[in-house]
Amino acid sequence: xxxxxxxxxxxxxxxxxxxxxxxxxxxxxxxxxxxxxxxxxxxxxxxxxxxxxxxxxxxxxxxxxxxxxxxxxxxxxxxxxxxxxxxxxxxxxxxxxxxxxxxxxxxxxxxxxxxxxxxxxxxxxxxxxxxxxxxxxxxxxxxxxxxxxxxxxxxxxxxxxxxxxxxxxxxxxxxxxxxxxxxxxxxxxxxxxxxxxxxxxxxxxxxxxxxxxxxxxxxxxxxxxxxxxxxxxxxxxxxxxxxxxxxxxxxxxxxxxxxxxxxxxxxxxxxxxxxxxxxxxxxxxxxxxxxxxxxxxxxxxxxxxxxxxxxxxxxxxxxxxxxxxxxxxxxxxxxxxxxxxxxxxxxxxxxxxxxxxxxxxxxxxxxxxxxxxxxxxxxxxxxxxxxxxxxxxxxxxxxx
Length: 400
What we know:
By secondary structure, the chain is α/β, with parallel strands linked by helices. The protein is built from 16 helices and ten strands. The termini are far apart.
């Protein structure tokens, strides 16, 4: 970037309060200029971002698609919406550069509380929310962005859906002729194979130590909601790559805490161990994280789950295991304790009548155990118990 371009960037972006001068110097670019009024000219933005401007007709800015309108996806969309308003941008649909994509599913029998809450937040924060890529608002923006280009690719796609829906994400994007994004930010529990092929370091998995809950902010009237974040002070962890650093810069610009991590494989395993000793077991025990730790029988089962998992994963995750401290057992269970009275996301999904992430959590442990000749009988037993509880829940819902 030449001096004139850099000076223009600092002048415009500081004027809009996108980032501090320190951040602009640190990152070398401002990833938040998706307000058309605050955008720089195409030449400057191309040099800043190292790519095309993401728009036609003289418009420039970062293009963002958030796939999954659950607790995390909606929180992220709210952060972008608030940031754009604070920066002086307007959330007019015809100029929107950020879309929140819902599942498009029909409402569940007896109501769908999560979708009702999301609808209220979308309305309050004027979020561009779609249930289908065929939505005319989305198609209009896509047509604008494709002007003069052979192909338009989103700068960032944040995938916040559960892992069991990954195939559907790819299927829907393919059917709608939406190309693979430049950077895919994967926000999910568990361990899975990449769903977007050929991205290399552009595929950015994140470890999220937070939990997100909808909270009634209208004295129980159900008229207004906020999103409560547990462990908000802890950063999202991501690989220490150039692409991940761009994601980090973007998240920093909206006030979301993140950090590229040289020890990402270890950080991933640390969170994975917490998920696998707690998430499914909280359904069986019908309790929160404190309840798991403070109930003797459940605490004993967690110990067995931990040791089975350690033996099953060690051969195939050597890099992460080499980084583990000697007190890793204590790290896992003290980490779980920080969630306190919070219910794991899988438990919340169970109570909401939703599908559950099993294959990417304890199911993955069982697969690795079979491959490595280390039986994971407690994990298999736990999965069977949860599947039985799922059947009972669904049968009960069908009778209503």
